[in-house]
Amino acid sequence: MGVGALPELQLYIGGEWRGPNGRDTQAVLNPATGETLGALPLATSQDLDDALDASQRGFDAWRSTPPEARAAILDKTAALLRERADALAAIATLEQGKPLAEARGEAFYAASILEFHAGEAVRNYGRVLPRAPGLRSLVTKQPVGPVAAFCAWNFPIINPVRKISPALAAGCSVILKPSEETPASAIAVVRCFLDAGLPGDVAQLVFGLPDMVSRTLLASPITRKLSFTGSVPVGKQLMRLASDTVMRMTMELGGHSPVLVFDDCDLEKTLDTLVAHKFRNAGQVCVSPTRFHVQEGIYDRFAAGFAERAGRIKTGDGRDADTVMGPTANPRRSAAIEAMVENARSIGAKLLAGGGRADGAGFFFQPTVLGDVPLEAAAMNEEPFGPLALLRRFATVEDAIAQANRLPFGLAAYCFTENGRRQNLLGDTVDAGMIVINNVRTSWPDAPFGGMKESGFGSEDGPEGVEGHMVTKAIHVS
Ligand code: NAD
After folding, report:
1. CA-closest candidate to residue 446, choices 62, 119, 213, 95
2. Which atom of ligand 1 is nearest to the CA of 285?
3. In this structure, are residues 41 and 31 in contact, taking their beta carbons and an 8 Å threshold?
4. Residue 431 belongs to a domain
5. 56/121 same-domain check
C-alpha cells in the first residue's frame, strides 16, 4: 500500500477475511478529490447469518475468558494503535478528508480509550448484601450477549474503537458495521485487535446496505444489545427494530450544541477556542458548537472576531501540511450546508464569512459564519453537521437558558462566563448530557459521553459505558 492507496477492502466474519468474490460492491471516495479509492464488498444475507453464528460462538468463548486476559488484549491493541498511528491516520485522511494531524490524534485518543477499558475489564464488581447470619444477597453483573454496533464516518478510527472496547471489556462479542464511506480505517483498527490476539469469532466486521444489515442483525435472537452512533432519524428507526426483541441499547445520536457567551467572558481567548473547535473536522462532530448565543454587550465584537478568524482558516486536502480544515466527508454534507445557508440568508441572516463551496473537485465548503440568524432558519432547528456557525444575540441569563433548551436535542452545551454563581445555574438548568464551562473538551476516556432528549441515552466511555453492556442479577442465598 503506498501513499494515496487504501488497503484491501474486506469483511471479517468467523475468523476469516472475505473479499468481493461475486459480492456487490460500493465505491469508496476520496472527499478531497472525488476520486474512487476502492470497491467495498457488501455483505450477503449468508454473510450476516455467518456473522451471527460466529458472534454466538465468540460470546460463549469470550465470556469465559478471564478478565485479566481480556484486559491484556485491549492493552496490546492500544499499543498497536500507537505504533501504527501514522499509517492509520493516512488511511483515515484519505477516505474521510480530515487533516492528518487530526487523524493522528484520533489514533492516539482511541488508544487511550482502549487503555481505560482494559482497566475496567477487571473491575466489573458486584455487591454483597449481608442479611441474617448464613443469609445474603449477591448482586452480580454479567455480559449482556452479542452486540450489534453501527457507527458513523466522522471519526473513522475512534468510532469503531468506542464501540468495540466496552463490549470486549464487559465480556461481550460484537458485530460492527461501520460506515461504508470510511471502511478502511475500521479494517485497520480490527487488524490491531486481531494482531493483539483477539480470538477470531469475538469480533465480526461487516459492511453492506445499512437497512438490510440492521434489519437482519436486530431481528436475530442472538443479538442482545444495540449500540449506535449516528443521526436521530436513523437512531429512531433502529430503536423500533430493536424493541421487537427488547434488547439493551446505547444511542449516541445527533445534537445541535448551544454556546452561551456572556459579557464577562475572556473574549479573545473564548474566540480562539471556539473558532478552532467549530471548524475541527469541518464541523462534522456530534458535539460541534452550532448555535452561538452571545450577550448583547459583546455581540458585535464577538461576531467580527469570529468572522475574521474563520476567514483565515486554510482549507485544502487533509494530506497537505498547512491544511487546517479539509473537505466535508461526502457530497450530501456540502449540499446540505449550501441549502441551509441559502435558506437562512433568504429570511434575513447576515453572511459574515464564507458562504459557498470552495474551489476544487472534492466536497469542500468554506468555513461559514452567519449573524443575527432568525430562529425560523432551518439551520437553527436541524443539525448542520458541517462548517457553519450561527450567531444570535441574547439579553439575560434566563433568555440564554431558554434558547439553549429550545430544541429537542441535548448532547453538549458550552458556556463562557467568569461568574461562579451563573456557572452553577447553567450546569443545573441547561438540557445537555455534557456541559462544558469556559472550555470545549467534552471527552475523556473515564467520563461518560452521551446525551439526553432526542440526542440519545446510555453513555459511552467511563464505567457507565461498560455497565451498558452488562445485565444485573440478584442472587438470594440462604
Ligand atoms: P445518515 O443518517 O444517513 O447516516 C448516519 C450513519 O448511520 C452512517 O454511518 C450510516 O452508515 C448509518 N446508517 C444509516 N442508515 C442505517 C441503517 N438503516 N442501519 C444502520 N446504520 C445506518 O446520515 P449521513 O448523511 O451519513 O450523516 C448526516 C447526519 O448524520 C448528520 O445530520 C448528523 O446528524 C448525523 N451524524 C451524527 C453523528 C454522531 O456522531 N452523532 C455522526 C455522523 C453523522
Report:
1. 119
2. 40
3. no
4. yes
5. yes
**pLDDT over threshold 80, residue 44:** yes
Nearest CA to ligand 1 atom 25: 332
Lining residues, ligand 1, CB within 6 Å: 150, 152-154, 179-180, 210-211, 214, 229-231, 234, 237-238, 252-254, 286, 332, 383, 385
- Average pLDDT taken over every residue of the chain: 97
d(CA 120, CA 207): 29
Taking residues 289-294, report their average pLDDT.
98
Whether 4 is in a domain gets the answer no
Point out the catalytic residue in the list 252, 383, 454, 460: 252
Q: Please name the residue ranges forming H helices in 329-383.
A: 331-346
Residue with cell 453538549: 412
C-alpha pair distances (Å), 48 with each of 28, 59, 178, 208: 21, 16, 14, 9
217 and 277, same domain (yes or no)? no
Name the residue range of residue 383's domain. Answer: 257-445
The mean pLDDT of 20-46, rounded to a whole number, is: 97
> pTM here?
0.96
Q: DSSP labels for 271-309?
A: HHHHHHHHHGGGG--TT-EEEEEEEHHHHHHHHHHHHHH
What is the spatial distance between Cα 206 and Cα 49, in angstroms, rounded to a whole number?
11
192 given a catalytic annotation: no
Q: What is the pLDDT of residues 134-150, one digit of tens each?
A: 999 999 999 999 999 99
Name beta bridge partners: 368.
388
Cα-Cα-Cα-Cα dihedral of 84, 89, 94, 100, to 10°? -150
**Phi and psi, residue 70, nearest 5°:** -65, -45
Same domain, 15 and 149: yes
The mean pLDDT of 69-80, rounded to a whole number, is: 98
Query: Could you tell me if 237 and 215 are in contact, meaning their C-beta atoms sit under 8 angstroms apart?
Result: no
CA distance 86 to 101: 9
Asked if 252 is an active-site residue, the reply is yes
User: 358 vs 288, 325, 375, 426, CA distance in Å?
Assistant: 21, 12, 27, 38
**3 lies in some domain:** no
